[in-house]
Design brief:
The chain is mainly alpha-helical and about 550 residues long. Helices cover about 65% and strands about 5% of the residues. The strands form three sheets. It has a two-stranded parallel ribbon. It has a two-stranded antiparallel ribbon with strand order 2-3. A two-stranded parallel sheet has the order 4-6. The protein starts with a helix and ends in a 6-residue tail after the last helix.
Length: about 550
């Protein structure tokens, strides 16, 4: 019996083709290197002393082994034949399962009644009801302030949605009830959407193994604590993540042969792309790069996909900034968000190697950023102290001069730029940061001063403390790591279903799986330029990665 088990393990890890072993080993080495690099960037800022090199070499070996074991086990499970055939005509009680998912989330709402929020939401809604959004905010004293209705630093569509519900509460004399109404609607829509997609995947799965995977993913969405904690949060990232899930589902339905049109309607496809663009500033880039990827498939409807993408581009870059913003007095947002990572790299250069800057370089920087404030306020783990010194009245010529200087200094000091970037985003790509949650409604003036917790605050405090303790427990903490959902799951899905197939001569001509994964990887790229390491910036990946597993591993059968 022991010999048989050993033979079975040997077959999993070392047999099944020498070429497969080599590619799996190479993938594991790359993943291990990337993990150790990012971990060092956060903890040691890419300084490689004797001790650091010894430690990182040991970690590299350990991670390589673990990544290799993981990929071989996953491939073995996916290659195992299912023992039972399944009925493709089976229908699930969809409404009942959605209600059960909603009820699984309900205890979290009761503990944190009427829900939770973050400061971005507070600022968005307060600006709406005050009618004044001061621009800019930051450290530069004496800079002219522009008073507008809203600041497009935060996408205005979520602002209007949140404010509408709170306005409903204001009408009936209790703003907290309006807040609660939004949370309940978000939970209901989320439960219907996620549960409905999982029902579709379960019904179309071609094997018992596929259906088991879907069941596990359903269990995850129902009982993984951070899912309901974000579902009871009034947050633009939660709203965007639900639309992101719908977007990859629409792609799945079309490109895996379920529908002749995405999710049954081109209107649905366009509206999904439009809402994806309008609920988060990075959404338009997910739409554009996914559309470009679709064009390479030479699909019969690629012109329609292109038209939908161009429609979203016109909506985001023309109609909103040129028509809607001026009409309702919305400030279009500052360039500091677009160039935040560049500014952080400049701030790190000032901190680490100021003598490399000439007086002319300093003048160029000071025309864009407040040089003295940057020098004093620079921090390693967030870009806000630097980018908030951006001078709103700087000219395009001054910005162009800065970009030339930034590029020139980057060629001379690439390591400093890497330290500035990966010391912030490193924990999105390596273990070390658990998934953070919001556990209260921030205190504030304005309309949010009237929105407060209904349930005793001690309940929420104890629940949040328990959550934190769980996320640092040995072994268990690994399923709470941001990197698992933000990078590892998408990377494994890409390797196993795209690169590995191609390398082993099993290339799918249309690469359907790649199109489904493309929106995830566009989102991964934006984590590199994230303003800080916080889970909400990776929320669309945290929400969609488990669903992507169910989509690609459920042994789908084309109808």
């Amino acid at each position: 019996m022991k010999l048989e088990r050993l033979a079975g393990l040997k077959k999993i890890f070392f047999v099944k083709g020498e070429k497969a072993v080599v590619f799996d080993a190479a993938f594991s080495v790359i993943m291990a290197f990337f993990t150790v690099f990012n971990q060092n960037a956060v903890e040691d800022h890419l300084f490689f002393g004797r001790f650091n090199m010894s430690r990182d070499t040991g970690l590299f070996i350990v991670y390589t082994i673990l990544f290799y074991i993981a990929v071989r086990v996953i491939v073995a499970i996916l290659n195992a034949r299912s023992k039972e055939e399944v009925c493709l005509e089976k229908r699930l009680p969809r409404l009942k399962l959605a209600i059960l998912m909603f009820l699984a989330w309900l205890p979290y709402l009761l503990i944190f009644l009427p829900g939770v929020a973050n400061y971005d939401t507070v600022n968005q809604v307060n600006d709406f009801f005050d009618g004044v959004g001061p621009v800019p905010f930051g450290f530069v004293k004496g800079q002219e302030t522009v008073n507008v209705f809203l600041n497009a630093h935060h996408p205005i569509v979520p602002t209007f949605i949140f404010s509408f519900f709170i306005w409903q509460g204001k009408v009936i004399g209790n703003e907290s009830l309006g807040f609660l109404l939004y949370i309940v609607c978000q939970m209901a829509v989320g439960a219907l959407l996620i549960s409905g997609i999982l029902c579709d995947l379960y019904e179309k799965a071609g094997s018992t193994r596929g259906r088991t995977i879907v069941k596990i993913v359903r269990f995850f969405y129902m009982f993984m604590p951070f899912i309901p904690m974000y579902m009871i949060c009034m947050l633009k990232n939660t709203l965007h993540s639900l639309i992101f899930i719908l977007f990859i589902y629409v792609l799945y339905r079309y490109f895996l042969g379920r529908d002749e049109t995405p999710a049954g309607s081109w209107v649905v496809f366009f509206l999904t792309e439009a809402m994806l663009s309008l609920t988060l500033n990075t959404g338009i880039f997910v739409v554009v790069f996914t559309g470009i990827g679709i064009l390479f498939l030479k699909d019969k409807n690629r012109v329609k996909f292109l038209a939908a993408m161009l429609g979203c581009v016109i909506l985001w870059f023309v109609i909103f900034p040129k028509v809607i913003y001026p009409t309702i007095n919305v400030y279009p947002g500052g360039k500091q968000e677009l160039y935040g990572t560049l500014f952080q790299q400049t701030g790190r250069l000032i901190r680490d190697n100021e003598e490399a800057l000439s007086e002319e370089d300093k003048e160029i920087i000071d025309a864009i950023l407040d040089y003295d404030t940057v020098k004093k306020a620079f921090t390693f783990n967030v870009t806000d102290p630097v980018k908030d010194t951006f001078k709103m009245n700087s000219t395009d010529e001054e910005l162009n001069e800065y970009l030339k200087m930034w590029f020139r200094q980057g060629l001379k000091h690439p390591i400093i730029y890497l330290r500035a970037t990966f010391s912030i985003c490193g924990y999105f790509f390596s273990p070390g940061a658990g998934i953070q949650i919001f556990s209260d409604i921030p205190k504030s003036d304005g309309i949010f001063a009237k929105i407060h917790n209904i349930a005793p605050s001690r309940f929420g405090e104890k629940a949040a403390d328990l959550y934190f303790k769980i996320t640092i427990m040995p072994v268990i903490k690994w399923i709470f790591q941001t990197v698992l959902y933000a990078f590892w799951i998408p990377a494994y899905l890409y390797y196993i279903f795209v690169r590995r197939k191609k390398a082993l001569g099993k290339k799918d001509e249309k690469a359907h799986e790649l199109i489904i994964l493309l929106p995830l990887f566009v989102s991964v790229l934006f984590l590199v330029v994230s303003p800080m390491n916080y889970s909400r910036y990776a929320l669309c990946l945290i929400f969609s990665s488990p669903l992507a597993i169910a989509m690609l591993c459920s042994d789908y059968k084309k109808s």
